[in-house]
Amino acid sequence: MGTVLAEEVSDWFRRSARDLPWRAEGFGAWGILVSEFMLQQTPVSRVIGPLNAWLQKWPTPQALASATAGDAVRAWGRLGYPRRALRLHACAVDIVANHGGVVPDDLHALLSLPGVGEYTARAVAVFAYRRRHPVVDTNVRRVIARTVKGQGQPGPSSTSRDLAAMEELLPSSAADAAVASAAFMELGAIVCTARSPQCDACPIAERCAWRTAGYPEYSGPVRAKQPRYEGSDRHVRGAILAELRASEFPVESAALRAAWPDERQWARALNGLVNDGLVEPDGLDRFRLPA
Fold first, then answer.
1. Which of 16, 105, 106, 134 has the most other CB atoms within 10 Å of its CB?
2. Which of 8, 36, 230, 243 is catalytic?
3. What is the pTM of this model?
4. pLDDT digits over 131-168, tens only?
């Protein structure tokens, strides 16, 4: 069943895939690596503009490595989770220092890069270099849960189980496996969605165990919901960083204090930013982005 599923989803993908920058011929491993950093916990629609701007500014790892970490945080803008910018900068420095300025194609070498985890390493190896590895994101897990396991939701993740489940679906050819991996992701992103699956448009609806079973309600364990952004410490951190990004010079503490009305929450968020290396005090009661 696995090979048939992969073939049918891949055929659908070749006809229906969205036109996304990182799928263009010749986009390159560096562009794919940057896109994967940006796509972590961020919708595709919010990534395309910043990605294009980033790659125009820093088209190679060498270009980013020659900039400061603060430049990276400033350019990250409102993408959220700005520690990704620091990690991407550190990743570029490591690529230049230890890999001749070329994004490595080996899975273990990719995993050794700062900020690169299991998913990102596999995504780069597969989509940039056509290596044969299972690649699993939230969308893939949902498609497998429904199609193969007959569950409405995948439940909590398990790296070993998830990778093994995807491995069973992959074609033997590395090139075909790369297409299949992208295809399963696309199916989960635009058809087999979490809240409103479009089963009438699904290319493998007739093979879906969940559909065949009559769409039973999922009753297993679920991930905890992420707290709302508005009013959270993440919100305060974003407000502080926005003030610092808007200035080319260190910002006085008193001026930065105006970014948020709750002084205790502001102080907690600022301390967190300093501890994370996203903000640096200059010893004169002023703060700046990292040098």
1. 134
2. 36
3. 0.91
4. 999 999 999 999 999 999 999 999 888 999 999 999 99
Beta-carbon contacts of 126 under 8 Å, excluding residues fewer than 6 positions away, are 132, 133, 135, 177, 178, 181
CB 225 within 8 A of CB 33: no
Same fold, 138-212 and 233-288: no
> Which residue type does 111 have?
L
Q: Round to whole Å and give the CA distance between 200 and 169.
A: 22
Q: Which residues does 183 contact at the CB level (< 8 Å), separation at least 6?
A: 6, 9, 10, 12, 13, 17
Residue ranges per structural domain of the chain: 2-129, 138-212, 233-288
pLDDT of residue 91: 98
Topology of the domain comprising 233-288: Arc Repressor Mutant, subunit A (1.10.10)
Residue 280 β-bridge partners: 288
Report d(CA 44, CA 41) in Å as an integer.
Answer: 10
- Specify whether domain 2-129 bears CATH 1.10.340.30: yes
Confidence of residue 45 (pLDDT cuts 50, 70, 90): very high
Catalytic residue list contains 118:
no
Residues of the chain above pLDDT 70, percent: 99
Sheet arrangement for strand 286-288: 251-252, 286-288, 280-281
